[in-house]
Automatic annotation (TrEMBL):
The protein's name: Deoxyuridine 5'-triphosphate nucleotidohydrolase
Keyword Metal-binding part of the UniProt annotation: yes
Function: This enzyme is involved in nucleotide metabolism: it produces dUMP, the immediate precursor of thymidine nucleotides and it decreases the intracellular concentration of dUTP so that uracil cannot be incorporated into DNA.
Domain dUTPase-like intervals: 17-147
Species: Streptomyces pathocidini
InterPro entries for the chain: dUTPase, dUTPase-like, dUTPase-like_sf, dUTPase_trimeric
Amino acid sequence: MTRNPVDVLIRRLDPEVPIPAYGHPGDAGADLVTTEAAELAPGERAVLPTGVSVALPDGYAAFVHPRSGLAARCGLALVNAPGTVDAGYRGEIKVIVVNLDPRESVRFERLDRIAQLVVQQVERVRFHEVAELPGSARADGGFGSTGGHAAVGGPAGGMDYAAVVHGREGQ
Ligand SMILES: O=c1ccn([C@H]2C[C@H](O)[C@@H](COP(=O)(O)OP(=O)(O)OP(=O)(O)O)O2)c(=O)[nH]1
Ligand SMILES: [Mg+2]
């Protein structure tokens, strides 16, 4: 089943820039181009303009993701991947690239596709401060803890999540 597309307003700041397009049906990302040619030495980074700005509907955000082909072929990464474009941002979308190849420079021509934009619905949350968090199977096991000794504490032990949240409403 195909869902209706979400409408996003876009402004071209450069008349030669193509409207971001999905390569295939079902693709998550629409490609962004750079309007400036650039050459990055190994380890060098740059903030590249894309020539577009957007107005996303409330409740959405757009994420600037790397293109895997450039990552595999040239070692190109996005410093802040994925870059977050807020619904209220009306400025030009920029792409913060870095050349991670230790030896080779990477060169872009004007209008080369350098990144892809993924538009997603995002939740807005309310934070409820509590003295103790409910238990969980993972508990405080952090990086690399899976597969070691068993986590202490059962699922949601000792606290009714909904009661804590709803019990505090109106306070
Ligand atoms: O890859 C990116 C990431 C962000 N932005 C724009 C849109 C986003 O809404 C704004 C701010 O980004 P972010 O919140 O990540 O940066 P910040 O350092 O937290 O800045 P601010 O204090 O303005 O929120 O910059 C881009 O154009 N490209
Ligand atoms: Mg921010």
